Amino acid sequence: MENSRACYVLVFVMAAFASGVPNSDALDTSHEQETKVMEITKQSYIVYMDKSMKPEHFSLHQHWYTSLIDEVSGSNSDPAAMLYTYDTVTHGFAAKLTSTEAQAMENTDGCLAVFPDYVYRVHTTRTPDFLGLSSSHGLWPLSHYADDIIVGVLDTGIWPESKSFSDQGLTQVPARWKGECEMGTEFNASHCNNKLIGARFFLKGYEAKYGHVDEMENYRSPRDEGGHGTHTSSTAAGAEVPGSSLLGFAAGTARGIATKARLAVYKVCWPEECLSSDLLAGMEAAISDGVDLLSLSISDSRNLPYYKDAIAIGALGAIEKGVFVSCAAGNAGPIPSKIFNTAPWITTVGASTIDREFPAPVVLGNGKNYRGSSLYKGKTLGNGQLPLIYGKSASSNETAKFCLAGSLDSNRVSGKIVLCDLGGGEGTAEMGLVVRQAGGAGMIQANRLVDGEDLWTDCHFLPATKVDFKSGIEIKAYINRTKNPTATIKAEGATVVGKTRAPVVASFSSRGPNPLVPEILKPDLIAPGVNVLAAWSGHVSPTGLTSDKRRVDYNIISGTSMACPHVTGIAALILAVHSAWTPAAIKSALMTSSVPFDHSKRLISESVTALPADAFAIGAGHVNPSAALDPGLVYDADFDDYVSFLCSLNYTRSQIHILTRKASSCTRIHSQQPGDLNYPSFSVVFKPLNLVRALRRTVTNVGGAPCVYEVSMESPPGVNIIVEPRTLVFKEQNEKASYTVRFESKTASHNKSSGRQEFGQIWWKCVKGGTQVVRSPVAIVWE
Ligand SMILES: *[C@@H]1O[C@H](CO)[C@@H](O)[C@H](O)[C@H]1NC(C)=O
Ligand SMILES: *[C@@H]1O[C@H](CO)[C@@H](O)[C@H](O)[C@H]1NC(C)=O
Ligand SMILES: *[C@@H]1O[C@H](CO)[C@@H](O)[C@H](O)[C@H]1NC(C)=O
Ligand SMILES: *[C@@H]1O[C@H](CO)[C@@H](O)[C@H](O)[C@H]1NC(C)=O
Ligand SMILES: *[C@@H]1O[C@H](CO)[C@@H](O)[C@H](O)[C@H]1NC(C)=O
After folding, report:
1. Where is the segment annotated Disordered (predicted)?
2. Does residue 3 belong to any structural domain of this protein?
3. How much of the chain exceeds pLDDT 90, in percent?
């Protein structure tokens, strides 16, 4: 099956990395313009309803919703206008309406809000060893590899033939499972087994926007067109597959994290876009089917408030049913505050490196060597030096330095190695294609300043490598001052493990402060998301390019998309051991046990600056599965706590109703502030007349034994932290105790500190009865 969209997911991921920031603003404007043009044509909207207002003569809420569509459409009424009705994670429906009809809908009795169908996007094996998981002891054997746990993945679908989804050695499907294997293009019930226990697809919202999805364009079934969903699903819960590699790179046993957990996939991305109406429908189905956890490597890119954000709405519905939800933080780093999926009931995951590299150094004519990284497999350039040219000099066209399509003059680049800058907005494999089409022999890609030393690596079909920002500058200077500059690329297909400092925060990983609610620290934690090997769609090339005819079973890609399913898998293992824990307790365990240090016991660093990374980059730290199993204390929270949190945001009754499916009264807890949520981390915002904040926290003893905890802290230089009491005594399991933390700015005048950020931490240590350490990061901002 050949088609032009085949590789869009990966392509988008690469392009997003290359340009640093997904081009969200451009997307926004085109969308708004579209909305204006569509006055008479219909587009999809989500209509959120107060179900308690249903008139009695409608026996079912569906009848009421249909009658409302008829009412607002009048003679324009279309029986196909209704796309979905929602009843599990929210109340309401998605429908195709004109903008006039949508306005009329907003004024009908019982309607809480009408929002357009927003666009979401996917963010694009040594990892288990790197995370300290072992088959001889600890979390894997204790959890029985999560064999009774069902992981739901909302993504681009699945390639069911991958060995990662073999059910060898697995018992029957858990009896409580209510899901199914939906039939469609090249997919039927026989593609499911005791590993892949459910597979569905949702495309009514996508089709309302783009028209009928042709079978030549994408599988009209749960089958994965681009590979992204296959990759994330196998990372969370793929079986053990010995002898896996990408073209020989990263060879070894590929394993998901929860190797025996069951998978249910919900294809909601097609593949470049995921519509909120399809996402909500997928989340509803997953929860009704009986998943235990949900993994979403997807986000919107405009930071919608939680009551407009399908993922936040669906996730709160999931949490109420006890379903843990983890999401990717986004690939918009290192720019501050471009972080997504920030609702406190979601576990938000940033990306970090592992200690595995694919070295492909550059050697210049002057004998100088530069570290490079590549997943190129094929004929090498050998030791012979080839002429070297900077793309910028290969044409008069400004875009030539980025090696964009049509920009290179083949007379000038033919037979040469071409140096190209990242950041032109094109995927890195596409840049290689441009160089090759112009007759280039090889390609060196230079990081931008914001990419720092990150050598997240791409698959190429010509000898190519990527160098860090500083090396790029030096190579350009060499080209500039040398009459006949030459180079070679030693892309020899090596995989090197354990030699590099890791984990390091990936440059692209999205950073706090949380733009929606600065008092909730995000991301929550980081996990491996750079150069991750996992299963791939069997009919698409590793570069994602249509012109690349190679086919692979496993692929190596990078993104917070890859980090999220690691945390989902670890949460599945923890849930298998602690079946009574709430999603908030699991999240707390993951956060308070995570580590701020790398494998050489230095603070985790930033790849761009090589300086220690702060809590806006790493949250609580790098996930530490074995310690998460026995966190000692947890910061628990239930649905009502999140309702109080929504009240503290001053959301209107209707807005809260959309998220909670019921009318909530906020009066009782009106004095609350967002930071009062019982969260496992602290984010304090000092304002000009508010330089003291006092927060209360409650911890629950899950350590199983009596224990005396004592508090320690590392105060930020400009802040006094006072914790009261300093000792907490627990006599029994599940006992709760509360404490208050006072944060006092040392500078009396806010003006001097305005814009400053400082960091610290607070930890409770079991000093009698155990050894657990319960650590919370502290972030302070003087607004
Ligand atoms: C389901 O798909 C398999 C594999 O493609 C095929 O062999 C089988 O005949 C199909 N079954 C049905 C009922 O269509
Ligand atoms: C420069 O290259 C771009 C493609 O990268 C192309 O769209 C544009 O037309 C070119 N401009 C000129 C002046 O050739
Ligand atoms: C090469 O050097 C000259 C003079 O030092 C400078 O003006 C020019 O910008 C440089 N060109 C490149 C491509 O670095
Ligand atoms: C909510 O409103 C109260 C009262 O006007 C105000 O003090 C508080 O800062 C507001 N909270 C947020 C998060 O906007
Ligand atoms: C802080 O700065 C603002 C303007 O920058 C000024 O109006 C105000 O008086 C200053 N406040 C103090 C306490 O210095």
Report:
1. 218-239
2. no
3. 72
